Every structure is written in C-alpha cells, then in structure tokens.
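Pilot study result, target chain (407 residues):
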Amino acid sequence: NVIATAKLQSWRFDPFEATEAELIASIPAMFDAFGLFRRFNLDRSKFEAFVLAARNTYNANPYHNFRHAFDVTQTVFSMLTTFQAARLLTHTDILGLLLAALCHDLDHPGLNNAYQIKTSSELALRYNDRSVLENYHGYLTSKLLLRPECDLLSHLDEAERGPLRTIMTTAILGTDVSDHFEFLARFREVLAARGPAGLDRGCADDRLMAVQMLLKAADVSNVCKPWRIARKWGDVLLDEFFAQGDHEHAAGLEPAAFMDRGKTTRAKVSINFIDYVAGALFTEFVNMLPAAAPLLQYMAANRRHLLRVEQREAAELGVKAMAEIEAEKEAAAADAAVLAAEAHADRRLTGSTDEADEADEASASASASGSRRRVRKKRRGGKKKASSRSGSASASTSKGGGGGGGG
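Predicted structure:
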C-alpha cells in the first residue's frame, strides 16, 4: 500500500507504524509531488530498482538502517512542503536533496567515525580520517547510480548531471556532525548578510547551503518530533550507541562517555544533544524557515519529558540526576548573585566612607597647615620684638657704665 501524500507531508508522521514494504512503495510519491519524474524524464523501473538497491545496501543496525533513511527522506519532504522550504530551491536542488536523503547512510556499519579513526579501519585509511563514513556513503550513492539497472540519471547531459552530483555529495558530506559548529557559523553569517529577505533563491551558493541545512536538520530531527515518535528514535539510537560502547570495552578500548552504559543514562545523552547541538541548529533552521517555529516547541517539550525520564534512569544507575544537577547549578547561581549584590553594596558603602574620610583628612591637613603657618608667623613676630628690647638694654648699659651684670 502507498501512504497518502498528505500523510507523508505531516511532521507527525510515524514511520514505525508502517511496514517496510509500505515505506518502499511510498517513496515515488514524494518525487511525484514535485513533478520530478516528468520534469527530468526519469525511468520509473530504474527508479524502483534504485530504491530497492539502496534498501538492500542498508544494514540491520538498531538505528542507522533503511527505516532511518526513509524517515530522513520523509522529514525532508515535510520540510519542503509543510514548512515551505521548496520556495528556496530549484527542481534540480529538490531532486538531488531527496536522492541524498535516501542514500545518506548507505552501508553504515553501526560504528561511528571516531571508532573508524581510533581503530585505523580500512575506511578511515581510505578517506584520511576526514568525514570517513560520509565520504563512504557518498561514494556508494554514486556507484549505485552507475549500475545499468539503476542509472536513472544517465540520460541527462553533463550540464544537469554535474550540479546534481554536487548537490548530493555536498548534502551527504554535510551530515558529518564534526562540521556542525563551523557550518552554523557560516550559515549565520550568510543569513545575517541577506537580511530580512533570507537566503537568495537566485544564488547557487545560497541554495546549496539551504540543501545542506535541510538534510543536516532532517538527519537529527528526532528530538524535534512529537514525544511518542522522538522516544522511539531515542531508544534505538541509544541501543546502537551502547552496543558500540560494549564492543569497544570488549576490544580493550575506552568508549566515549555517551556510549558507555555504565556511565550515563539514555535520557541524559538526548538532553545533552539538545543542549549542545540540536538547540542551536534548529534555532538557525527556524531563522531560515519561520514556518518551522513549532519544532522548537516540540524540542522544549521533549527536553522536559527527558528530564523526568532521566531522574528514574539515574536512580537505577546510582548516579546524580540531571534535574538535581541543574537545581544545584541554579541554587549556586542564585547564591552567587546574592554574594555579588552584597559585594556591590559593600563597595558602594566603602566607597562613600572612604570619600568622607578623604574629605576629613584633607580638611584636617588644611587646618593643620594653616595652624603651622600662624605659629610660624607668630614666632617671627616675637623674635622681632625681643630683638628690639635687647637693643635698648644694650644702649642703656653702655650709657650707664655699670649696673648689675646679671640682672
């Protein structure tokens, strides 16, 4: 059965409620909605073969599997339609973006880039430790499109195929989370330069940046979905993370803290992801597409749910809950604010006292100085009088020829 297009447009669509056969059968509908088969004269039999080949290239990982690939494709479709992202793009951009979404995690091994690099895997060596899996997924996408039974773009001329390949590879490489902060900085800069009008559809670089943002956001959109869907994706993602942590422990390696089931809780990993990655990403996403503002509300609601879940999980694990940590931080911040206010008040009081003391000292100094001047003046006056009296006595003795020498 093919899922109704209106249902596929919905942000509330739950891919866990459909069978894999239904998901596969519904993919062409998203391409049909933009008239892509007609506009690019795509062969439907080759398209179906391509979809099946892509599905068969995905592994049975808890998270990075075909259902995730479909979810990301459907999420992009919802962004393009419900949140009006299509107005930023051309039909070529949309075709490249949907193909990239479907193929962005082909043959994912369930072990992330950090593991590939840490173990000097064949893939890490091949791609020189740079966006290892993303490069691999992009390579497989191009290889798939070269198969005779899947080459649905082979009839296009180079002027059309070249831009399509650029769009697909750029979008897939953009899903590497290690590029997250650098990308956001560039995105903010471009968006600020464009002003209220936003990204320029007439600028190829702006469109490519929009494509990157759409796939990057769709790839991590679980935390912005309704709680009943977000919770399911969070569970399978942490199943995969903890499985990698177990694998690393067994191999004598030290896993990242968020993959170590003995050191963290499932909910804490999701909360940290919202706080340090998704929050900033979707804030900029909404700046690009104001119609997507409800996504921030979903994410805030999910964080509140996760805090409650994390309290239970932390108690079971025997570690301090994030809510407790946050309460302690808030209390510490409040205490610090009170101390700062008291210190400020003390400085003001001390400052006014010091000013008064300085004024008193200056007045006393001036008074003392004046007194010293008066004393010196008085002494000078006394010396003058004594000198006058001495002169008179001397003259009198001289004149009188004797008289009491001591007296």
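One observation from the pilot: Confidence is low (pLDDT under 50) at residues 364-407. A full batch analysis is planned for the follow-on phase.
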